Amino acid sequence: MSTINNQYHIYSELADLARPLGNAHRLILLEHIAQGEKSVEKLAELADLTVANTSQHLQQLKRNGYVQTRREGKHVFYRLADAPVVELLMALRQFAEFNHSEIRKLVKGTLHHQRDVEAISREELLVRMQENSVTLLDVRPEEEFEQGHLPGAINIPLGELEARLSELPKEQEIVAYCRGPYCSLSITAVNALKEKGLSARRLNDGVPEWKAAGFKIDAV
User: Fold this and answer.
1) Separation of alpha carbons 181 and 18, rounded Å
2) Could you write out the three-class secondary structure of 35-103?
3) CA 8 to CA 182: how far, in whole Å?
4) pTM given for the model
5) Which H or E run includes 208?
6) What is the pLDDT of residues 175-187, one digit of tens each?
7) Which of 14, 63, 84, 215 is at a distance of 20 to 30 A from 124, taking alpha carbons?
8) Which active-site residues does the annotation give?
9) CATH number for 18
């Protein structure tokens, strides 16, 4: 086989692998699975799809090696495959935001409609964590927190935040995070905390991005 034919074969395989990602619903499902293992029914609820439609998308992802499954009774649970899926999603987001001004506008309009929220850098946060001078607040649902969270983080789901403000220290800055760069839960949380007179910033990273950078993740 010639070199050109070899190259064509390699890139044909790459094209086949990339094809399942050319669907918004599958990308959304991957982002949710990246937070931790979930059932088909839960993924359907999170992605606002029917169970049948969700199952079809997940089968496409499984056939191409993006996810793995396990069965528990009548329920099938999906988790990310042992491959750099998170890194691939991060690279796709970075390329899209670099190359497409329309996507940048959509991201800004979607995430910052409530009010611009100052973000803390990963580097500064690491220093502050070593100094024990910051409180990490995970505002995702409890089941996602239990499957993996940043070390030392407190879990208060966004819907419970106002009722549980007393659990947060008033003397420390609070850094809220959620599911990653496109998640608005932490922005809402930071605005709510500031309205109550607390010092708060947002971390753009979610657990998948933090873990992909080589940092430790805790689980319950």
Assistant:
1) 22
2) CCCEEHHHHHHHHCCCHHHHHHHHHHHHHCCCEEEEEECCEEEEEECCCCHHHHHHHHHHHHHHHCHHH
3) 35
4) 0.83
5) helix 207-212
6) 999 999 888 899 9
7) 84
8) 178
9) 1.10.10.10
